[in-house]
Each structure stands twice: as structure tokens, then as C-alpha cells.
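Give me C-alpha cells for this 297-residue protein.
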Amino acid sequence: MAGRPLIAIDWGTSSLRGARLDAEGGVLEERAATRGILSVPAGGFAAVFDELFGDWMQPPAALALIAGMAGSRQGWIAAPYCPCPAGLADVVARLAWVAPGRIAIVPGLSCERAGVPDVMRGEETQVFGALHLLGIDAGTLVLPGTHSKWVRVEAGRIVDFATLMTGEFYALLRRHSILARTLPDDDGGFDAAAFDAGIAHALRSPGLLQSAFSARTLALFDRQPLAQRPSYLSGLVIGEELRTRALRGGEQVVVIGTGALTQRYERALASLGLRVTGIGPPAAWRGLLEIARRIEP
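Here you go.
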């Protein structure tokens, strides 16, 4: 990679972002567009790539690495999953080349849990980037989202991970369950006390199927103001997620992401006595840089 310009791209389901990096991983320029894979017609990925990043690829030595859903069956080309445990060398060995030596798609990862497969695309790159930015090679990392990912790393390799549909369950309960009738039309502002109460109730309950009904009964008995209820429900579902994790007091958990949702996870984890480290968008770019550094000329 010495002297080669690197174009780092995160191509997701609903959005597309890219960065032009220097040799040390510094961002020279960034671009973003609402051109996720679902908005690209069949056979149209090369045109979208050229439209947004064609000028960046003009240097003959430029290399583009693409992480995320661009490697799915609905994406540019299918990049088969790399089985866990997997480190950077394993990922590099399974790069799917769109244009040999010039444009490659990073494979997602797969693992087996109780005889059932689990998968991720894009999060693995952020995990590898976070490890290098923090100077660690082991630990527990969480990537909050519609489908949250909990990742366990040992000796620089992702050995296991689990997907939890927390954000999606919140949306289902919020809009399509009996609870929706007792909730305001919009979420309004974040209520920390109500969120904390939801976390606490979830942790002492046997499961979300039972604890979720408290959002209805608290409203039924007028024991919770209307404006607090969305934050309480958010605490219930995130608390359920934490309840299922084998977390130990004093353990470090790295939270990867930005925005309000990430802040809620950091608050919930800290309330359990965990050491929380947050890291944002640079994780994806650093992960792609570390992959690029391991590509043989």
C-alpha cells in the first residue's frame, strides 16, 4: 500500500459514504449520499460509484475498498461471508475484487450459535478499526442500531458475535402493539429518569414479553406522564438486550457509533458499573486502512 491513495467506502442499505485517506489514515475529503444499495437499479452500481468517486480513482495507483451491504446478494457483487474466528488476514484473503487490484469489496463475517448462523456486513470493519485506534486486541464491543451487534475479540480476531433486533422491536412495540395507544405521537425529548427506570425494570424482569406490559400498566394507573413513556420503552428494550449479555462489573465495553442511540447505550452500560469507551465514524476508515495495508502488491 505504500504510496497508494486509498478510497474507503461504507455502502449500506440506505446510505453511502466515502473518504479519501492519506497514508496514515487521515481523512483528506469525505462524501456522502442517500444512494444505499436499495436505491441502485440492477447493474447500476458501477455508474453510481463512478458518479460519486470517479475523480478520486483517477490516479492509476488508487485503491478502493468497500465495506457493507454492497457485498450482499442485492449489492454490487456477492462477497461470501468469512467464517469466525477471523482476523484481518482472513478478511484480506476473501476480498471480492470488482476490478482486480483496483476495487474490492470486504466480505462480511458469519458465525454459528446453537446451530444457527449469524452474519454481519460492515460492522467487522468498524471493529477492526476500533481495535487499532484504541490500541487493544481483545474485548467486548457493541454496535447499536436497528440490529445491534455484540462482538467478542481475542488476540485481534473476532471469535464470536450476536445480533439483537432491539431497534426493530422498539419500532414494532412503539407503532404496532397495544402499547402504541398509550404513547404520544412523537418521541419528544429524551427523559433520563424514565429511561433509567426502564433499564432497571428490564434487568429485574424474566424477559421482555413480561416487562413490556409495564409500559401499559404504568399508563393505566396514571403512574407515568405521557411524555416519559417513549424513553421508558426505550429503556425496556435496551435493558433487555443488556440482560442477555454476560457482562461483568468493571469490564470494558467499547461502543461504536454516533448520535443519541449510542449515548443511551453508554448511559445504560455505565449504570451497570462497566467501563465504557465510545468511538465514532473514524473506526470504519481505520478498519479499511488496516485491511489495505495487508494486501499483497
